[in-house]
Specification:
There is one protein chain. The protein is of the alpha+beta class and 323 residues long. It folds into two domains: 13-188, 2-Layer Sandwich (Alpha-Beta Plaits), CATH 3.30.70.1290; 246-321, no CATH class. It contains 16 helices and five strands. It has a five-stranded mixed β-sheet, sandwiched between helices. It is elongated and about 65 Å long.
């Protein structure tokens, strides 16, 4: 099954997760961590993206953000492409650093915002990287320390988070800390990152309750929220798609993916489009051909023009993948 398109309207609240390819590390030391966090802050400022919570782990990262005028995809492209290139240069490696596609969930602010903030900030505690919530207050690689005013990041919108807990900064911080502490006992919460109906409704217990009552709920695996919220988001997304020039937007997205992939893998664009038969070039053509046809809905001929191969070759790649 091809994955659905992203829901990327500016001003939307997203829970974003990025993972290392094949579960491998995306950071190797504190210099990498500092580079990732610095890049995240710089890009958020440039794109007008509001960041409320984040946690950088060894092989993945979580970010809770509200996209700016440029949308989520621009923010993520500017963050991940430059970081991956810098990481590869520093560690003298080639190839992809991140999994093909970051995971993003559109979130209904009420009642999920604070649960997501605490869930994300508690990642280092759940993973055993940090021994306690007290230690988390001074841990540099999670946004919790910034909310608690222990570490300064001007690009992180701590005031918005604390605004849920009161107007006075000190009492709001205390109330936030109490909330995070109470949430720490919940452990993993699959409804916040799971899929389909369970995510949309907010947990398996809610799904069972609805079924007992004979009620149906509108759902989508890309959205965390109630049925009305899910429906509203999908209607807005459909209207947005209808307003585009489909062919032009597909070609632009495809060209951007090609340039980004070549930069991340160290493959020359001219070589790939010129028929290079090296294993790395062939693998990249296959990957992009599948994305172009399955995700972007491009024709075989359209994908072939960008990849420097024939339409028949693209068709063969797609058919082999579905065997």
């Amino acid at each position: 099954m091809p994955r659905g398109p992203r829901l990327d309207a500016p001003g939307t609240l997203h829970h974003v997760m990025v993972r290392g390819i094949e579960g491998k590390s995306i950071v190797s030391d504190d210099a990498d961590r500092a580079f990732f966090v610095s890049r995240m802050g710089n890009v958020s400022a440039v794109t007008g993206t509001k960041i409320y919570a984040w946690a950088l782990m060894t092989n993945h990262a979580h970010i809770l953000l509200r996209s700016g005028a440029a949308g989520l995809s621009t923010f993520m492209r500017k963050l991940l492409t430059v970081y991956a290139s810098g990481y590869n240069r520093r560690h003298k490696r080639h190839g992809y650093l991140f999994q093909n596609r970051y995971k993003s969930i559109v979130c209904e602010e009420e009642p999920y915002f604070l649960r997501l903030v605490s869930y994300i900030h508690l990642n280092p505690v759940r993973a055993g990287i940090v021994g306690s919530i007290a230690e988390l207050e001074r841990y540099r690689w999670s946004g919790h320390a910034t909310v608690m005013n222990r570490i300064q990041h001007d690009w992180q919108d701590r005031e918005y988070v604390l605004g849920y807990f009161g107007q006075r900064a000190s009492s709001a911080r205390n109330a936030y800390l109490e909330f995070v502490t109470s949430e720490s006992g919940l452990g993993c919460q699959p409804e916040l990152i799971g899929g389909g109906l369970i995510r949309s409704i907010g947990g398996w217990s809610e799904v069972k309750s609805l079924r007992k009552r004979g009620e149906k709920q509108f759902s989508d695996e890309r959205i965390l929220g109630g049925g009305d919220f899910v429906r509203e988001i999908l209607v807005e997304a459909e209207d947005s798609v209808k307003a585009r020039l489909p062919a032009a937007s597909k070609e632009l997205e495809a060209a951007e993916r090609l340039a980004r992939a070549c930069e991340e893998t160290g493959i020359m664009l001219q070589s790939l489009q010129g028929g290079c038969r090296m294993r790395e070039c062939s693998a990249l053509r296959k990957k992009l051909a599948l994305e172009y046809v399955q995700e972007l809905g491009m024709s075989y001929a359209g994908a072939a023009r960008l990849l420097g191969i024939s339409g028949a070759a693209v068709e063969k790649i797609v058919k082999r993948h579905h065997r």
